[in-house]
Amino acid sequence: MHKFGGNGGIVAILDPRYFFPNTTEAMYAKGWQIWYNDPSSPDAVEPPAATKRQFEAYNELRQTSDAAKQQELMKEILQIAADEFYVFGVTLPLDGYGIVSNRLKNVQPIMPNSRGYPTPAPTNPEQYYIS
């Protein structure tokens, strides 16, 4: 059991561990992630073809700056994860809220909140101002 959720949006691209075992932080398939990072390791376990395709697609994704291509590759990675059903969730977190003074300007009307998106830093709080 793991209390954190899978990320969405660009954060899923930056930290896809819930969708395929690419790092030691993936909570499953340790041997596969070792194989991905070091196939010669004695602890490496060769993954099935579908998982290998995810590794290949993620490597392609990291090597392109084309956002449309990144989205296409991430959709493929997510579809394989859905088909292979490595992990599953049982609930989603409730929507949160924040209180902002009407005098505080340049604050985003909607702010993503996840572990992978260090809220509120990407909204550039240094650009907020009071009127």
Task: Describe this structure as you would to a colleague.
This protein is mainly α and 131 residues long. It folds into two domains: 10-84, no CATH class; 96-131, no CATH class. It is built from four helices and two strands; from the N terminus they run H-H-H-H-E-E. A two-stranded antiparallel ribbon has the order 1-2. The longest helix is centred in the middle third of the chain and has 18 residues, at 67-84. The protein is elongated, with a radius of gyration of 18 Å. The N and C termini lie far apart (47 Å). The relative contact order is 0.15.
Short description:
The chain has 131 residues and is mainly α.
